[in-house]
Amino acid sequence: MEVASEFVQVGSIKTHVLTVNNVPAWKGTTVVLLHGQAFDAATWQRVGTLAALGERGLRAIAVDLPGHGVTGGTALNGGERAAFLEELLKALHVKQQPLVLVTPSMSGTYVLGWLADHAAELKAWVAVAPAGLKQWIPKGVLESASKQPKLKVVGIYGEHDAMKADFALLEEALPRSQFVMIPNARHACYLDAPDLFNRELLRFLDNEVL
């Protein structure tokens, strides 16, 4: 599966992305993958997620967020992240397609603020031990998402990740949320059990999106 290294201009930020090209029998859905604090876009290539998505007929785009990976520069603060995500999706030309966001850990703070105004544009949210739930959910940021019956949400957590208890917050805000636990895995469960993580991701997408 061919993976292209490219740059897109997001406002003033030259943003690096890895894109799976030449997807066989593309199903029309695009999966945009963000990353955790200690990782970058290449993480999804190393653990085989980009290839797995492409082989399933999904266009996959992994993003180096500001302050990380090849994008470099300065990390954005909480108030800037939702605006960056909106401009990123415009620059990638994916807003008119069925869209899935995969947001591990820190990158959950990008999508939580964005969902408040854009939940109707999202087909599915794969929240991998997302950070920010305790901060954002009390502000009612998921209220609009809860009113979108077609929005599918899954929380994926490692068995040994203390943050798995936070899923109760997600489930309360979005009662239709599903929960997946990766056995014997820590916070970055996709590193500890990449094959199982990829299978669970594809199972969710097969059942709820495709």
From TrEMBL:
Location in the cell: Cytoplasm
Main location: cytoplasm
Top-rank lineage group of the source organism: Eukaryota
Database matches in Pfam families: Abhydrolase_6
InterPro entries membership: AB_hydrolase_1 (IPR000073), AB_hydrolase_fold (IPR029058)
Domain spans labelled AB hydrolase-1: 31-134
Alphabetic keyword roster: Cytoplasm
CC terms in the record's Gene Ontology section: cytoplasm
Homology family: Belongs to the AB hydrolase superfamily. ABHD14 family.
Name this protein carries in UniProt: AB hydrolase-1 domain-containing protein
